[in-house]
Amino acid sequence: MRVAFVIWPASAHLYPLVPLAWALKAAGHEVVVTSHPAIADEVAAMGLTPVSICEADSTPLLGPASPYVDERVDLKKITEALAFTKDDPDREHWNVLTQYYVPSMWDFLPYRGDPAEPMPAMDGLVSFFRTWQPDLVLWDPCMPGGAVAGKAVGAAQARWWTCPDVFCASIDRVNRVQAAGVEVDNPLAETVRGMADRYGVEVNQELLVGQFTVNPQPPAVGPFVSAEPLSLRWIPHAKQQVMPDWIYPKPERPRVAISLGLSERSFMAEGWAHIPALLEAVSVLDIEVVATLNEKQLSQVDKIPDNVRVVDFVPLNQLIQTCDLLIHHGGMGTVTPAIANGVRQIVVDFVGHDIHVTPGSGDRLGRSRYSLGPALARYVTDSGAGLVMNVANPDPLEMREQILRVLNEQHFQDQADRLRNDWLAQPSPSEFVPTLERLAEQHKTR
């Protein structure tokens, strides 16, 4: 079987698929990862085969001119038609979709694109598929052209996603409103329509949400949508390096890790004003802190406390095994190593702020709140494995009290252990391969 992953070119979209890709390879299947050439070297570093589908300069990537505006779509008008109430949970999903993910699609597929106009990346994807003939295409929802390309060559096509399914949640909302007689555009449908018309593919529900969905996030994170995901254990993975000598032996006093996200510091220009207060909070505690922070994140810090070790990067799946607590921003790639190792958590969140991005500085964006923060904060607190730290108005004393509480109260550890047992109950990537083999055979049309 030939399997092609289609991903948006960012590390956070690559790392989670690596264990499944290797499980497929170990079972004798051919695997490629198709994307923009910006991610090709990192794909190769994972031991996987990269296929670049366009020239490096042929597609705009999250540039300073992109606070995500396309003159052909009026998202405000669509939002009003969907009639969200003040506390409607669908509004959060819609904000994440429209502020973060739909605009990322427009890097490769223009909204209501003209099927007669060139689409360099998507044309390159179809051209490669016609030659390579995949049996199964697993596409990142930020790259919905993968579904069109898979369908165009008769492959089975399925969504591969590792975060809350705001895509399907929003499609479900649009479908309900349309069924009630309201005329409203589906921005996902209108994003893929130009490419679909170009290659003679029907735009329907199956094209938008896949013939099936693979999402290894814990089911309790939600939201619960019509496209029910297949169960799979998420194996934490990141760019690897030689394990630093200081990681072992595990220290006698509690070790606390602080990790605020590779994607956040890669794409966001701001949002680090709480870091000085957080470091002040831990400075007088009898703990060892390992903080994976870079120069930009530390720009407002006057002095690093004596009990804090700052490193630009260390693979979290290595570090977390020696930790008693993880303080993080609420990213799935950060939550899952804590789950897999039964580690307590504190999620930092800008509580009370809306979710939106704004023009930032240089090639970065500003924002008021991390897109997944609210969903992951609810998951951690509802599970009992940790707390939420509100950093909208950071207070070192309150932060310190929360850290001590999570470290000292046994029930947080008990619930972290329960989450790990739930994680172990999901099928591993190697156990999941036969499911993909069966579904690919069932859905491909050539």
Give a description of the structure:
- Helix 12 packs across helix 16.
- Strands 3-2-1-4-5-6 form a six-stranded parallel sheet, sandwiched between helices.
- The protein starts with a strand and ends with a helix.
- It has two domains: 2-234 and 426-443, Glycogen Phosphorylase B (Rossmann fold, 3-Layer(aba) Sandwich), CATH 3.40.50; 245-424, 3-Layer(aba) Sandwich (Rossmann fold), CATH 3.40.50.2000.
- With 446 residues, it is of the alpha/beta class.
- A hairpin with a 5-residue loop joins strand 12 (357-359) and strand 13.
- It is globular.
- Helix content is 40%, strand content 14%.
- Residues 62-70 have low confidence and may be disordered.
Number of helical segments with 4 or more residues: 18
The share of residues in helices is: 25-40%
Specify the CATH homologous superfamily of the largest domain: Glycogen Phosphorylase B
- The CATH architecture category of the largest domain equals 3-Layer(aba) Sandwich
What's the total count of β strands?
A: 14
What's the CATH first level of the largest domain? Alpha Beta
Indicate the radius of gyration in whole angstroms: 22 Å
Total domain modules: 2
Q: What is the terminal-to-terminal distance?
A: 13 Å
Helix and strand content put the structural class at: alpha/beta
Shape: globular
Low-confidence stretches are 62-70
CATH topology label of the largest domain: Rossmann fold
Arithmetic mean pLDDT: 90
Oligomeric state of this protein:
single chain
Name the strands of the widest sheet in spatial order.
3-2-1-4-5-6
Major sheet description: 6 strands, parallel
Strand content: 5-15%
